[in-house]
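Final report, closing paragraph on structural work. Over the funding period we assembled a curated collection of sequence-structure pairs, and we close with a single example.
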Amino acid sequence: MRFHLALSFLLLTASLPGAAATLKLQISDQGGKSLADAVASLYPEAPDVAPGKPMPPHDHFIDQKDETFVPLVEVVPLGEVVIFRNSDRTRHHVYTFSPLATPPFDFILKPNEVSAPIHLTKPGVIPVGCNIHDFMINYLVVTDSRWAAKSDDKGSVTLADVPPGTYTVKLWHPRLRPGAAQPSQTVTVAGDQASASLSMTVMAPPREDDRDHY
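Its predicted structure, as stored:
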């Protein structure tokens, strides 16, 4: 399966030239269906684009509830901390073999236990699983972009405080075929409001009785 990214965008002129914009993205699959849990990241093409206001750092909590990692996808800015907690009545395993986690983590959480903080310092996607319940999976998307977020249930992403300029927008989704190139497209931001509609080719979701999220 080949991947493609189709993009159309509407830019609204600002009343104040040079003001930072709110960029709204609408993400769908190749059939036009809204795509939840897609991660969009912006990268300025010109080195002189202002970086925007820094986001205050915060810890990211991944819960284990009803034998499910919640959320399925977590966007983690580079250098921030992830903490796992077990809200179930059974033990859970938390592990990854990804080299992006230094070192890769592997531990058991008893009911109501919380893990030690895990600092993530390399960009990329870190899959996390549970060896006790093989159907449980989580994705930590560690990003070095100032502007990155995941889509909601309606496929919508809002990126705030984006200075005017030309950007590369990169997309990722759990149902991208393994090893496929990450879709990307150039967008131009001008004014205080901008919007873009994007589509990406993903694999079909598994059957509901597979107990797998994607």
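The first strand starts at residue 5 and ends at 12. Residues 157 and 207 are 26 Å apart (CA to CA). We thank the funder for supporting this effort.
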